[in-house]
Design brief:
alpha/beta, 15% strand, binds phosphoenolpyruvate, TIM Barrel, 12 helices, 8-stranded parallel beta barrel, globular
């Protein structure tokens, strides 16, 4: 039985005071209830300390949105894995489509970042997903498998077992368009087959694969019930306690 995970990516939203307020609202909203899913929130770097001050040691986990691939040194403006780990983070996004497409991050860079995360003892949430024209040309699966192969290929079994994968079709991120549960399920099956080919059945069967792309309380239950979908990476709907908790506790 795989664990289910709901992760909220706050992107470049909420300063440290607003983030602290949202973290308190989330904890308060749990109101002693024990969710059946693992909850992770992913604030901007500057908001991490105040959020960790609220959720540290609780059932709400915390992650960062990015890291650099060296542990320290002359890399002005960058933040390293050990810095995030010592702050209290347990997770880090690697390869979010906004970094691939706005910041031009390629597989070589992402591969280094993912390995740096593992080295620091962080759990990477590695994002993959196709663009709309790629889906329309019938290339979605090839694109996703290639993104996986270029970054995850060559990992040890012990390392891949610590990675969470997020399938996020780029055309569904922040657009209000969602993949159907059937489409999500199909791609998650492709990802699981890829993991089986490279790392064997136990790794593939245990892998946590999240779906991301306009997940909201209204569509979460159907997406989360789809075969091979182990949770969600949520952007917009993670910025309000009511909508994020509406995904964590579907009605
Ligand atoms: C995301 O940022 O990973 C995401 C899926 O965003 P949204 O839920 O807003 O589409």
């Amino acid at each position: 039985m795989r664990r289910k995970v709901i992760a909220g990516n706050w992107k470049m939203n909420l300063d440290h005071r607003q983030g602290e307020t949202l973290a308190r609202e989330l904890l308060g909203g749990l109101n002693g209830r024990k969710p059946s899913v693992e909850i992770i929130i992913i604030p901007p770097f500057t908001t991490l300390p105040s959020v960790l001050g609220v959720v540290g040691g609780t059932i709400i986990g915390c992650g960062a949105q990015d890291l650099w691939y060296e542990d320290k040194g002359a890399f002005t403006g960058e933040i390293s894995g050990p810095m995030l780990k010592s702050l209290g983070c347990d997770y880090v996004l690697v390869g979010h489509s906004e970094r691939r497409h706005i910041r031009g991050e390629d597989s070589e860079l992402l591969s280094r970042k993912l390995r740096a995360a593992l080295r620091a003892g962080l759990i990477p949430i590695f994002c993959v997903g196709e663009l709309l024209p790629e889906r329309e040309k019938g290339k979605a699966e090839t694109v996703v498998v290639e993104q996986l192969r270029q970054v995850l290929g060559g990992l040890e079994k012990e390392e891949i077992s610590r990675v969470i994968i997020a399938y996020e079709p780029v055309w569904a991120i922040g657009t209000g368009k969602t993949a159907t549960p059937e489409d999500a399920s199909q791609m998650h099956g492709v990802i699981r087959n890829f993991l089986e080919e490279l790392f064997g059945s136990p790794v593939s069967a245990a892998a946590v694969i999240l779906y991301g792309g306009s997940v909201k309380p209204e569509n979460a239950s159907r997406l989360l019930a789809a075969a091979d979908v182990d949770g969600a990476l949520v952007g917009g709907a993670s910025l309000q306690a009511s909508s994020f908790l509406g995904i964590v506790f579907p009605s």
